[in-house]
Amino acid sequence: MREVYFLSDFGLADPYAAVVKAVMRQVAPGLTVHDLAHNLPPGDLRRASYILYESVPYLPRGAVVLAVVDPGVGSSRRAVLVVGERLFYVAPDNGLLTLAYLQDPPRRAYLLEDPAYHLPRKSSTFHGRDVFGPVAAHLASGVEPTRFGPELPVRELLRLPIHLNFGRQGEILTFDRFGNAITTLLATPTQARGKTVRIRYHRIPVATHYAEVPVGAALAYVGSAGLLEVAVHLGNAREQLGLREGDPVELWGGRGG
């Protein structure tokens, strides 16, 4: 049986994530479900997409990724199963898989239209429990992807307007729970060393780790996913620097700019 890795914006203060896992284990007794994250901001597709970008390379081949960040639940948005080169994805087709596709290109996709693999009574507001969770469990237990519904050309899968690049100009993609700003600029530590990040009215030196600057000082560095990040040593860059998602970011060639 395949393992399931579960991402949602359900949080842990309500029973929603636990109920989805309970439904999956009723469908597939003995199923192993791992939590990727549940406390991201409600409806934050960019944050969800980044979490998948960071996680996907480390998940075991053949695993099922259940991703339920679904602000359009109950609308005409499509529910899909995507077969990647390494992994399977069960999610709303709303762009949250955009960055996962960069790590694990989609090969085939199917609409989740066969009610035989859903719960008998469906809520218009909880497709995680009634559609996505049951499908993920059936898939993990060995049901072929073709059984869930008609094929959808992968070129029709929705993607968010996020563009990762190795250039000089990008934007803030999202923030982590520490308030660190994660940008769309790809870099290696060698490429970024000695340079400066310009963001809003700030000029921020690139360092290799937090302790290279004093406590309370801003720094930029190449994060664990290979993306340039901006932080404040033992602080919150989002709050202290007044940063916002989508702010333009520039990487300049020297500390003085």
Automatic annotation (TrEMBL):
S-adenosyl-l-methionine hydroxide adenosyltransferase C-terminal domain ranges (all copies): 170-250
Family (UniProt): Belongs to the SAM hydrolase / SAM-dependent halogenase family.
A Pfam family matched in the record: SAM_HAT_N
Keywords: S-adenosyl-L-methionine, Transferase
Protein species of origin: Meiothermus luteus
EC numbers on record: 2.5.1.94
Name by which UniProt lists this protein: Adenosyl-chloride synthase
Domain S-adenosyl-l-methionine hydroxide adenosyltransferase N-terminal: 4-149
InterPro entries per record: SAM_HAT_C, SAM_HAT_N, SAM_OH_AdoTrfase, SAM_OH_AdoTrfase_C_sf, SAM_OH_AdoTrfase_N_sf
SUPFAM superfamilies: Bacterial fluorinating enzyme, C-terminal domain, Bacterial fluorinating enzyme, N-terminal domain
UniProt GO molecular function: transferase activity
Residue stretches in coiled coil: none
